[in-house]
């Protein structure tokens, strides 16, 4: 059975990865250890993009402070996405010097959250019901999803119907050049070569393997720092259970070993109906091969 061969070969790759490891999360400095973190929900009242500062009217933080309006430092990516009137949830960080900043910022409008959570629940239930048969073979349609992209927008899988789609799996903290950075670089090469070849309906998707860290703001900053053209390249993140189900259905293995995140790699090509028409396992695949399989206008 093809599922068994792919699964076993992926398992061998995962074991092999455990030696050099895919990623090591940074060591925590004494200053960072002294920081205190609190969950926060509130509304953005104003954005100072030049200073990366948000003015937020937040709700009561139990056991710490009443509801009030405060200014917070945020990352470049979060400042780029922030809009006055937007509801957010985040972690408020009290630094050792008494200053405050926000991290792990997520959109929190009722409608967006409901859509994302409903899709995550449906995807999880589908994956559980399929059991060992959850893996999507070549010729089968890819699973449906709703996730956030690097611009903080809700992106549903239906948006890509009628498009040729390439998919890979990365996370922004992966420092191993031949893994996630190489996958993104190859996608950028594919994007360029496909245009030159007359492919006008290509969409590229990189799903985050680390949604706990890879918020929309983190993904936004990642694309800015690397000069990525996101006109047809989406970086997607969302609930852990949704990502876990997608990984299971696409046959991607992950394993945490202490601070090390090991994972297998695969790149897929879907046709306009969402059907998987080609798959390359491993981190090394031929850009020209994928472009050659695409329909030209």
UniProtKB/TrEMBL annotation:
Residues 1-21 form the signal peptide. GO terms for molecular function: metal ion binding. CDD domains: SCO. The keyword 4Fe-4S does not apply. Residues 136-297 form the Thioredoxin domain. Disulfide bonds join 174-180. The keyword Disulfide bond applies. Transmembrane segments: none annotated. Cu cation binds at residues 174, 180, 263. Keywords: Copper, Disulfide bond, Metal-binding, Signal. Gene3D superfamilies: Copper binding periplasmic protein CusF, Glutaredoxin. PANTHER family: ELECTRON TRANSPORT PROTIN SCO1/SENC FAMILY MEMBER, LINALOOL DEHYDRATASE_ISOMERASE DOMAIN-CONTAINING PROTEIN. Belongs to the SCO1/2 family. This is Electron transporter SenC. The lineage of its organism: Bacteria, Pseudomonadati, Verrucomicrobiota, Opitutia, Opitutales.
């Amino acid at each position: 059975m093809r599922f068994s061969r792919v699964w076993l070969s992926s398992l061998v790759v995962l074991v092999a990865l455990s030696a050099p490891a895919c990623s090591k999360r940074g060591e925590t400095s004494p200053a960072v250890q002294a920081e205190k973190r609190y969950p926060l929900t509130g509304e953005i009242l104003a954005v100072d993009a030049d200073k990366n500062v948000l003015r937020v009217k937040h709700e009561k933080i139990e056991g710490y402070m009443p509801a009030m309006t405060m200014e917070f430092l945020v990352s470049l990516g979060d400042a780029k996405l922030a809009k006055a009137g937007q509801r957010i949830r985040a972690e408020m960080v009290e630094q050792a010097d008494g200053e405050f900043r926000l991290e792990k910022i997520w959109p929190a409008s009722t409608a967006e959250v409901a859509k994302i959570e409903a899709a995550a629940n449906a995807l999880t239930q589908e994956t559980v019901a399929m059991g060992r048969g959850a893996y999507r073979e070549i010729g089968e349609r890819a699973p449906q999803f709703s996730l956030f992209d690097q611009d903080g927008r809700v992106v549903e899988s239906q948006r890509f119907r009628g498009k040729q789609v390439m998919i890979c799996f990365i996370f922004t903290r992966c420092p191993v050049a031949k893994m996630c950075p190489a996958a993104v670089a190859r996608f950028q090469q594919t994007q360029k070569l496909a245009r030159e070849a007359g492919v006008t309906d290509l969409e590229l998707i990189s799903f985050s393997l680390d949604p706990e860290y890879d918020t929309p703001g983190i993904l936004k900053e990642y694309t800015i720092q690397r000069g990525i053209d996101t006109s047809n390249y989406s970086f997607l993140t969302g609930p852990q259970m949704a990502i876990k189900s997608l990984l299971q259905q696409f046959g991607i293995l992950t394993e945490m070993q202490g601070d090390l995140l090991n994972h297998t790699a695969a790149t897929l090509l879907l046709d306009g109906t969402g059907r998987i028409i080609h798959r390359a396992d491993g981190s090394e695949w031929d850009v020209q091969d994928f472009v050659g399989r695409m329909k030209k206008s």
